[in-house]
TrEMBL record:
KW Transmembrane helix (keyword) present: no
Superkingdom of origin: Bacteria
Stretches assigned to the Aminotransferase class I/classII large domain: 40-384
Source organism of the structure: Subtercola lobariae
Keyword Transferase tagged: yes
Alphabetical list of PANTHER family matching this protein: FI04487P
Name of the protein in its database record: Aminotransferase
Family to which the UniProt record says this protein belongs: Belongs to the class-I pyridoxal-phosphate-dependent aminotransferase family.
CDD domains in UniProt: AAT_like (cd00609)
GO cellular component, one term: cytoplasm
Keywords recorded for this protein, A-Z: Aminotransferase, Pyridoxal phosphate, Transferase
InterPro entries in the record: Aminotransferase_I/II_large, Kynurenine-oxoglutarate_AT, PyrdxlP-dep_Trfase, PyrdxlP-dep_Trfase_major, PyrdxlP-dep_Trfase_small
One Pfam family from the record: Aminotran_1_2
């Protein structure tokens, strides 16, 4: 076998292992290729079709011109670490020491990788919500841990508290949450966050929270779990500039938390990428210091986009679930007569000139059936693109 056992394991964890042992393309790669080949509107992968703020883009250009082009410090440039600490204080009143409690990473993805690989041993259990961001499954499998999940229940995609209590045991090393949540757009309520902290204490588990959509909520406030009593000392908080500043290709992410935990993450991170994106680091620092109007503006803009796409999907005959945050909305294709979202997504470019992703791509096989007819659509696109997609999708109901 060409592929190592560890990576076979990871591919299996991500649901990518084909019956013949080869590794399949992710559904995201398959759907993006389909969008490319057919010219369909790509509402599959979550990347914006417009540039982020000029201040941020110009800061990167200036940094390149000034010669910020060599390896930055291993923990990240001082200016960015200070900007991350100031951001946590300004928005959440969390005090973070930029010297010891902040680590800059190659996107949130590397932060997740280094955290899971650095903190988990063979046979430990890692609990996530389900559906889950695909990298979680692969990384947990690569760390040779057991992946336990808590299903998110329709119609609001929130976890049942009894399910949470059952999933977290003394074998649980990490409770990984994603709040606000991709792919469902759910925002975890305060009492659920408090229960997670209580369970982490009871079973001596650590909390890892992926908050890349922290600024993209549509009315509900974002409550970082690390800001709640009893959480800080056992929580690692992960975020990234990609979603907030529409710079998903820059891959500047970070993790904040107690120094001891950050050191464990750094131990792995230093051998994954060592460092990345020197000129983009000061640019993201510039972004984090933008005035409140910027952060309010992106949320308002995206709220409108959510509404345009959601109402278009409703008019087309889907049952649309409310999205409270993120780039995404989930819609049920069953009322249109499609019980299998994988089949529908493969046909959608032909039927309606649109690409989307089945929710089952974010699930283990056992639970995929419950979400079989659900589709994730991205609305981080220009309004005219969303309107066109909605008009084309209206063909489905005819
Ligand atoms: C986009 C996304 C990431 C990846 O962030 P990068 O900074 O691009 O690595 C991680 N988690 C979730 C939930 C995401 O949607």
């Amino acid at each position: 076998m060409l592929i190592s056992g560890a990576w076979q394991n990871a591919a299996a964890g991500a649901g990518l292992l084909a019956p013949d042992g080869t590794i399949r393309a992710t559904i995201f790669a398959e759907m993006s290729a389909l969008a490319e080949a057919t010219g369909a509107i790509n509402l599959g992968q979550g990347f914006p079709d417009e540039d982020g703020p000029d201040e941020v883009l110009d800061a990167a250009r200036r940094a390149i011109k000034k010669g910020v082009n060599q390896y930055p410090p291993g923990r990240g440039s001082v200016g960015l670490r200070e900007a991350i600490a100031a951001h946590q204080k300004r928005f959440y009143d969390i005090e973070v020491d930029p010297e010891r409690e902040v680590l800059v990473t190659a996107g949130a993805t590397e932060a997740l990788a280094a955290t899971i690989l650095g903190l988990v041993d063979d046979g430990d259990e890692v609990v996530t919500l389900e559906p889950f961001y695909d990298a979680y499954g692969a990384l947990i499998a690569l760390s040779r841990a057991e992946h336990r999940t808590v299903p998110l229940r329709l119609p609001d995609f929130l976890p049942d508290h009894d399910d949470l209590r059952k999933a977290v045991t003394d074998r649980t090393r990490l409770i990984v949450i994603n709040n606000p949540h991709n792919p469902t757009g759910a925002v975890l309520p305060l009492d659920t966050l408090e229960l997670i902290i209580e369970l982490a204490h009871e079973h001596d588990a650590l909390i890892v929270t992926d908050e890349v959509y922290e600024h993209l909520t549509f009315g509900l406030p974002h409550i970082p779990i690390a800001s709640l009593p009893g959480a800080w000392e056992r929580t690692l908080t992960i975020s990234s500039g990609g979603k907030t500043f529409s710079t998903t290709g820059w891959k500047i992410g970070w993790v904040t938390g107690p120094a001891k935990l950050i050191t464990a993450v750094l131990a792995v991170k230093q051998f994954l990428t060592y460092v990345n994106g020197a000129p983009f680091q000061p640019a993201i620092a510039t972004g984090l210091a933008l005035p409140d109007e910027y952060f309010e503006g992106i949320a308002t803009d995206l709220t409108n986009k959510r509404d345009v796409l959601s109402s278009g999907l409703t008019r087309a005959g889907f049952e649309v679930f409310p999205s409270e945050a993120s780039y995404f909305v989930v819609a049920d294709a069953a009322p249109l007569g499609y019980d299998n979202a994988v089949t529908l997504c493969r046909e959608l470019p032909e039927l309606a000139g649109v690409v989307a992703v089945p929710i089952s791509a974010f699930c283990h096989e056992e639970l995929a059936g419950e979400y079989a007819s659900l589709v994730r659509f991205a609305f981080c696109k220009r309004v005219e693109v969303l309107e066109l997609a909605a008009a084309q999708l209206a063909r489905l109901g005819r």
